[in-house]
Amino acid sequence: xxxxxxxxxxxxxxxxxxxxxxxxxxxxxxxxxxxxxxxxxxxxxxxxxxxxxxxxxxxxxxxxxxxxxxxxxxxxxxxxxxxxxxxxxxxxxxxxxxxxxxxxxxxxxxxxxxxxxxxxxxxxxxxxxxxxxxxxxxxxxxxxxxxxxxxxxxxxxxxxxxxxxxxxxxxxxxxxxxxxxxxxxxxxxxxxxxxxxxxxxxxxxxxxxxxxxxxxxxxxxxxxxxxxxxxxxxxxxxxxxxxxxxxxxx
Amino acid sequence: xxxxxxxxxxxxxxxxxxxxxxxxxxxxxxxxxxxxxxxxxxxxxxxxxxxxxxxxxxxxxxxxxxxxxxxxxxxxxxxxxxxxxxxxxxxxxxxxxxxxxxxxxxxxxxxxxxxxxxxxxxxxxxxxxxxxxxxxxxxxxxxxxxxxxxxxxxxxxxxxxxxxxxxxxxxxxxxxxxxxxxxxxxxxxxxxxxxxxxxxxxxxxxxxxxxxxxxxxxxxxxxxxxxxxxxxxxxxxxxxxxxxxxxxxxxxxxxxxxxxxxxxxxxxxxxxxxxxxxxxxxxxxxxxxxxxxxxxxxxxxxxxxxxxxxxxxxxxxxxxxxxxxxxxxxxxxxxxxxxxxxxxxxxxxxxxxxxxxxxxxxxxxxxxxxxxxxxxxxxxxxxxxxxxxxxxxxxxxxxxxxxxxxxxxxxxxxxxxxxxxxxxxxxxxxxxxxxxxxxxxxxxxxxxxxxxxxxxxxxxxxxxxxxxxxxxxxxxxxxxxxxxxxxxxxxxx
Lengths: 250, 493
Hints:
The complex is a heterodimer. Chain A is α/β, with parallel strands linked by helices.
């Protein structure tokens, strides 16, 4: 059974149709890259799958491990194991990263019918994970994304992913604004997370992230639908020749 | 809107069933004066409290002054004219004031139990109700117009600290009361202070002697129970040279459709090198969603830093009351003295708050800090009003003011009225203000991580208030956080 199964998804935002029939099927253990030019609907796809309010699903369905989540709330999808790493992580002033992470982990534990982890166990794990991402100990005490650099914000998203252990992680333009060092750290985090039971969808404009996180499948989203799918070589071709030739060919 | 956003609205709608947990009525025989106010009523209150003649005369003079005054109308609040003749000015449980805790009516003890206020010294000392090994807190419990019990008096007396009801202080410590009562908030200060001076019932009196650090937190818990009754408590705290004390105040009232008046006066006096920290968690009944009922909280709180290097710090968390009109202030008369005001004021539904502070710098090297956090939700109106004044004497005076407003939804209002009057060119007065909204993006981030909308809003608001919460004594900070969460129910949507 696919982990994520998007079927004929039509979505509109404020009376404008953004997605016009997207199909995407992601199986456990796979990495998919969704690429496309600006304005092609990549971020809409990521957000609507995560249940962000403000998007109207006109037709089609989204299933998570067989369960129809087309109309589920954002928190319900999250608790079922869907994670979205944000393109522009927002600040929550005064709320420490630690407090935020603990609240998220506690509600996941509660859903699994487990008790919340002890504060000590949580802190140990959070510190060790932060260290793997080259984030110093003080990082956890700072306000959520408050005054973070672009690279810190993106690494913070990966930190949350590693701690919440989702079944499917959608990374929305996680490579944007990262220098090569930071990208390697982020990629190492994602590669650590990958196993045969989970899956990753990389939403990206550029292929450079794919040098570090190697996708099994590459899809090109343009004009609101997936116009071509292939393997890694498709991404390399796009990088070399741009998007024009595919769009022209359709 | 889309299916998904309707879902989020649903999640928000389910939060609307907010309950005011302190809204019950205690069934107890009460002696209540008939409504109305004249000199006979003032004398009768004084007689009830077995006061000496000087106290009765003091009240009568306040009463005569009040008669000639009119209620203030400058606040950014809107409510019908109060009929002061329809209010009863004294209500008390029947019978003699109990001599010890053992004699307190069990019904009253149960009331405070239900409110989470422990009045059993033994149980607390033995650790029965004190599992975390927290330091015990001495409590003065004021029920309608009288103090029904004050705990840990003996232990405090050993340290030389006087902690008793105001009525008792008038009888037992007349010299201190005569010396300081009305010196910080004069009887003629304002309409409600004058009214309070005429009819004040109970409240707390604290005296911390020279060089003494008060060995435990002191607190007063005010409870309005009787119907159609005003509560007019009066609190006086004196910290002598090099003394320090931390004092907490809590308040609740039953849910009723009629508005009830609470007009208190609090006076703080700090002598040389003394330190007073006064914290309030105000949770008077706020009225229902449509604005029916609730307490009118018209309070005058002021501290005088009389001594050099003295310090007075006000911390308030205001979530209750239909209308709040309150400006805890510090008059900085001592050289190098320090005044602080940390405030969280939350309004929801139809609540109105006009609150802030006054920092009056009258001596060299005085410093003040104002951190105000206003949170408006529902259709409420939340106003910060603050005055910073430096007189010609206040060389090198410094003030820092930070005034932040957070809006939840788009039917509420946040307003800021800062007044700065500087007559000393070397004084530095800084004012920063921000207004923000709990954004959809913040909510979505939290929900995407599995945190539901209700918890997310509470967390975001808690973060907004963090600078103030960390000024609260620890037990209170937890309580304040929970209170915000409850008060915010039904606020998003």
